[in-house]
Write a structure and sequence with these properties.
Number of strands: 7
CATH topology of the largest domain: Nucleotidyltransferase, domain 5
CATH architecture of the largest domain: 2-Layer Sandwich
CATH class of the largest domain: Alpha Beta
Distance between the termini: 105 Å
Number of domains: 2
Largest sheet: 7 strands, mixed
Radius of gyration: 29 Å
Helix content: 55-70%
């Protein structure tokens, strides 16, 4: 029927539709620089230098290192701002941040949902921005962002995203720095590890759902400027953290604790790399005592008992886990070196240390006491 509609009627209908869209978009004020891609779907973009990478080769090297934890190409740094922090089918995303490398630039694209009724169109536009079969880099994205966005795709009768890889940097951040900095929220990792201080316009994450709800009531997006900034900074921080984690895992650090934890991270993937990192951590000043302990245990496992014994004695002199270290030395003398006299000497040292500190070991006192007593009695009877 529309094929036979008079031209003046088509013009009037098109013009009316355009004016309605303009009227609706005029009602929404305070959005950052950008453009509408469709009704109630707004897009903005910012471009940044490729820092911290001088060239593509450095990036590919880091990609290779982090491939053991899920990094592949094409890399897509991804973060969502949502109407709630707990997930569930009632929570939806209203702002997506997508970061990608394009030659010598890092581009951050943001897709904003101006009204919940346009969620289906918003999801379609999101799929147009994200490359086919992406490899995501997120922060807690395995538990929150990706399950949430795929739930929204399914509820909208659309195919969920199937990434080729997913590097969740939260897990590596915890592995590398939790013992040192405690909280591994992205904001704390930024401050303590990356040295980034956000501007005062940033807003805390727990306020973001409330600010969006206020926008839906008023149509004034000026109160969301801090949310757009927050989301963009999350993406940029992910990009910087990607580099920092890769550098740490490659051993390019002078911090003994970082190198020690990097060795732990490699342990299940490449034992040789783990051992090399522990060796480096034990050679730095001050040496990482935990790394020396792990090296000693690994040498013992491999059958290099002389090297293990040397490291355990070094640890004992450093007053590190004196009871456990003395027991390990006693075991090597008894079982591998067949020297019952030295084994007894070190078992008695373990008992002496235990008796000196037993008020602080009340929960395990009886078990440990029985174990040491049994060891000493057996060695005395040899």
């Amino acid at each position: 029927m529309n094929d036979y509609m008079p031209l003046h009627m088509k013009f009037l209908l098109d013009n009316s539709k355009r004016k309605n869209e303009e009227r609706k978009r005029t009602f929404i004020k305070g959005l950052p620089a950008g453009q509408f891609l469709d009704d109630d779907v707004y897009f903005c973009e910012s471009k940044h230098e490729m820092l911290p990478y001088k060239n593509r080769g450095e990036l590919e090297n880091h990609l290779q290192i982090l491939s053991h934890w899920g990094a592949k190409e094409p890399l897509v740094f991804f973060d969502l701002e949502t109407t709630g922090l707990s997930g569930g089918t009632g929570t939806y995303a209203f702002l997506a941040g997508i970061g990608m490398l394009d030659q010598d630039q890092f581009i951050v694209r943001q897709l904003f949902l101006c009204s919940p009724r346009a969620e289906g169109i918003w999801l379609q536009k999101l799929m147009e921005i994200i490359p086919y079969k992406p490899s995501f880099v997120t922060y807690n994205g395995k538990n929150f962002d990706l399950p949430l966005i795929n739930t929204r795709f399914i509820l909208s009768r659309m195919e969920p995203i199937e990434p080729t890889g997913h590097l969740d940097l939260l897990h590596l951040a915890r592995r590398l720095w939790k013992k040192r900095i405690g909280s591994c929220t992205l904001s704390n990792v930024e401050k303590q590890i990356l040295g980034i201080d956000r501007k005062t316009e940033d807003v805390p994450g727990f306020l973001i759902p409330e600010l969006y709800a206020q926008f839906l009531k008023t149509g004034d997006a000026s109160g969301l400027s801090g949310v757009f900034y927050h989301n963009e900074m999350d993406i940029l921080s992910l990009y910087m953290l990607f580099s920092k984690v890769a550098l740490t895992l490659s051993g390019r650090s002078t911090d003994p604790h970082e190198i020690d934890m990097a060795g732990d991270a490699w342990y299940n993937y490449d034992l040789n790399k783990a051992s090399r990192l522990w060796e480096k951590a034990s050679s730095l000043t001050p040496p990482a005592k935990n790394a020396i302990w792990k090296l000693a245990i690994e040498y013992k496992r491999q059958g290099d008992h002389c090297e293990a014994l040397s490291l355990f004695k070094k640890l004992y002199d450093m007053e590190y886990k004196k009871i456990d270290v003395a027991v390990e030395i006693s075991k090597i003398y008894e079982h591998q070196l067949k020297n019952a006299k030295e084994a007894l000497l070190w078992a008695e040292k373990a008992m002496d240390n235990f008796l000196r500190c037993r008020p602080f070991l009340s929960s395990i006192r009886k078990e440990k006491m029985a174990e040491l007593t049994k060891r000493i009695d057996r060695l005395r009877n040899k």
